Amino acid sequence: MDRVIPKKKWTTKKVLTITAIVLIVLLIGGSFYFTSGKSKLNVNTERIMISEVTKGSFKEFIPVNGVVMPITTIYLDAIEGGRVEEKFVEDGAMMKKGDPILKLANTDLELSLANQETSVFNLLTQMQISRNAARQNTITKLNQRTDVDNLLKEAERVYLLDKQLYEQKVIAQQEFKQAENNYNYAIKKKKLTEEILKQDSISIVEESIQSKESYKRTEEALKIMRKKVEDLIVRAPIDGQITSMNVEIGQSKNKGERLGQIDVLSGFKVRVDIDEHYISRIYNGLVGEFTFAGKDYKLTIYKVYTQVSNGKFQVDMKFEGEIPQGIRRGQTLQIRLALSDETQALLLPKGGFYQQTGGNWIFKVNEDGSVAYKIDIQLGHQNPEYYEVLGGLKVGDKVITSGYENYETTQELVLKKNKE
């Protein structure tokens, strides 16, 4: 009799199939886990810089270099051209206002001066001759008037006498008419003489005025010419030290050519070069600080030159309060120029991380220091030492501030120390 053989529940084929399915599921799940999860990277703590976020005083400033200059510089230009004939001082000499510096020779100017002086002398002589002639003419006219006056009196006497005799019928009418005509003629001649004298007087006055104006203009031209010749001697316009004078005897200097300069040593200013990136934020009144001989000093911008050259523009700064002892012209100062007032803020030390993140994210270290994970942050202004933190961090947080050259795609850094 046949025996019923029980059917096996787990066959080898079934076990192998289930095992294969499980392995495939695990493989897919593991692949999904490792590709969709956070990427990690082991980092040696000795190769990174970990900084702590603090709270303190923050002031945005930029480091700039300034050169010490005299408070005032007067440039010496040749007012008139000429050949250097004599040097009275050398470069670096201390000058008083009006002291001669050098002498130029210009024969054309000197000849023009001589000609102008001759012209003035000739004009003066001609004016004297004209005055004498006018005076003589006036005397002649006055003599003529005297004769006319005498003629009129005599004609009047004869006319009155003949009129009386004619009325008494002592003389004929013809004789009376002749006396009357002579009298009327004398009256007209008297009026004409007076008019001539009047016009002559006016002409003399006008000619005198014109002569004086002509003489005045000629004399003014002579003064200008003399001033031109005097300008051949270059003199100090103010008290100060002459610098940058590069002239030698025998050299020819053109009109307007730079001869040197005089520095006023009563004070100093600082000429500062600033990157054009900040031009919209620079204005009069901004304050800068610098350290000299272990002591801090302040400077204030009082003049901004908006012309940009080679990516930079310039400002002039003046000392506020005490001027450092021993400071010299041409000395370079390293200045911290403040762009904002001092405020209380969260401070993040500057580091290389900013180059890769642009200040948008950072690796923050957990409390036990074993892991650093990527978080978003917001930074504000900065100075050479700190960034101003606006969001994403709080006081006491520790972050990695060194460079992130190899961490751009990493989500977490596993921090490990070298084993002894």
Structural description of this entry:
- With 420 residues, the chain is α+β, with helices and mostly antiparallel strands.
- The chain folds into three domains: 38-57 and 343-416, Beta Barrel (conserved putative lor/sdh protein from methanococcus maripaludis s2 fold); 62-66 and 263-338, Beta Barrel (Elongation Factor Tu (Ef-tu), domain 3), CATH 2.40.30; 108-230.
- The protein has helices at 12-36, 107-167, 173-230, 353-357; strands at 40-44, 50-52, 54-58, 61-77, 82-87, 94-95, 100-105, 233-235, 240-243, 252-253, 258-275, 287-292, 295-309, 312-320, 332-338, 343-349, 361-365, 371-376, 378-382, 386-391, 398-400, 412-416.
- The strands form four sheets. A six-stranded mixed sheet has the order 1-22-18-17-21-2, with no helix packed on it. Strands 4-11-14-13-12-15 form a six-stranded antiparallel barrel. A four-stranded antiparallel sheet has the order 3-16-20-19, with no helix packed on it.
- The longest helix has 61 residues, at 107-167.
- The two termini are 80 Å apart.
- 15% of the residues are buried.
- Mean pLDDT is 85; it is low at 31-37.
What would the keywords be for this entry?
conserved putative lor/sdh protein from methanococcus maripaludis s2 fold, 6-stranded antiparallel barrel, 3 domains, 35% helix, Elongation Factor Tu (Ef-tu), domain 3, 420 residues, alpha+beta, 6-stranded mixed beta sheet
